[in-house]
Amino acid sequence: GRKKEGKKERKKGRERRKERKKEEKTRKKERKKERKKQRKSERKKERKKERKKERSKERKKERRKERKKERRKERKKERKGKKEGKKEEKTKKERK
User: Fold this and answer.
1) Residues 6+ apart with CB under 8 A from 43
2) Burial of 47 (0-12, 13-18, 19+ CB in 10 A)
3) Could you give the CA distance from residue 37 to residue 42 in angstroms, rounded to a whole number?
4) How far from 40 is each of 36, 43, 44, 91, 93, CA to CA, in Å?
5) How many domains does the chain have?
6) Quick one: pLDDT at residue 91?
7) How far apart are CA 44 and CA 72, in angstroms?
8) pLDDT tens readout for residues 7-55
9) Residues annotated as region Disordered (predicted)?
10) Is the pLDDT score of 1 beyond 70?
11) What is the distance between the alpha carbons of residues 16 and 22, in angstroms, rounded to a whole number?
12) What is the pLDDT averaged over residues 51-72?
């Protein structure tokens, strides 16, 4: 009987090792999956951040453009006003 018992024990050990190996493999797969998922979400966050940055940049650019336009208009008005004033002075002088 001792020989058979040893054989059975070895077989049990082998089975346990196989089982453990299988479990490790599945755990490894799970971890890999998790990491992949995490990386994906990280990239998503990064892209979102980038888009936000880009949009704010664009808005800033637009606002700058608008302000420039407004200033140009203002300057044009001022110049026109000065010209009008000079013309009026000339006409006053001519009348006298």
Assistant:
1) none
2) exposed
3) 9
4) 6, 5, 6, 77, 80
5) 1
6) 78
7) 42
8) 888 999 999 999 999 999 999 999 999 999 999 999 999 999 999 999 9
9) 1-96
10) no
11) 10
12) 97
Structure token pair of residue 33:
């999956």
When comparing pLDDT for 56 and 94, which is higher? 56
Q: Which amino acid is at 83?
A: K
CA distances from 21 to 41, 68, 89 (A): 30, 70, 102
Average pLDDT along the chain: 91
What is the domain extent for residue 63?
1-96
Global pTM reads 0.51
